[in-house]
């Protein structure tokens, strides 16, 4: 959802309005209770850039005042800065009409088919639907990462829900249960999420034949497992994998994810069964794979080998290896290649 910064307090010539135009989507008027005020709608995740720029503007103006013999004191400068900070902070609670809000749905109406022994660990999805007039009919189920022991729900989940929502794509962020050595638990949750989207396709304005799955790190392993092994209503039409764990063979993937997923002493059969690169076929859905070549958490060979198997089986795939960034960058705008990565993903999504 876009970030909102009110500007009604400032005059037309106010120095606080001298902001870089690329930060904004458009200009709008918001009515909140008995007050009406004008505001700028910022692009998602751009409020930090706005904050830095406002600070630079004020520092430059303070320096200019001193050069011209101005008498602005340090206390007065701090008061200005605090007022600006308050305006930005208060704006964060405002809601705009540029995107619909999300809602949560339980994954199961009764008992789930498999258990991990923790009754408090429940599966659910948060659904982000685009504005009806902007909807493309496409949807994606998102699986956050966390080594199969926790979930990075914000930067590998909800942030991406908002991103896809603004692209006209429905996003379904999955909070799947931890396996605790039983791989059927998260796999069944991901398959149920795919079925749930198809069940609600008509009411959510989604095409049943344009539903993908996306995953990060261990969530990428879960997504790739669904893409290569699931059938029928649970099978996705495309897959998006960010720095994914692919192999469950000892020493090839991510040891902690492997242990949490398969248990302490998995058999060779399960290792191969859940190594996605060993299960690629000609009916595996097309893929977008992104990773950094300096990832020292999940070996980059995981994503590269998976791409090679897709290529060998004539599956359309796009591999993007960035020169740096490490592991776990998700939606972080601090990732050096964030803008390039976003452009690559948008271009790929428009290619089919």
Automatic annotation (TrEMBL):
This is Predicted esterase. It comes from the Bacteria. PANTHER family: AB HYDROLASE SUPERFAMILY PROTEIN C4A8.06C, PEPTIDASE S9 PROLYL OLIGOPEPTIDASE CATALYTIC DOMAIN-CONTAINING PROTEIN. Pfam families: BD-FAE (PF20434). It comes from Prevotella denticola. One of its GO terms (molecular function) is hydrolase activity. Keywords: Hydrolase. Gene3D superfamilies: alpha/beta hydrolase (3.40.50.1820).
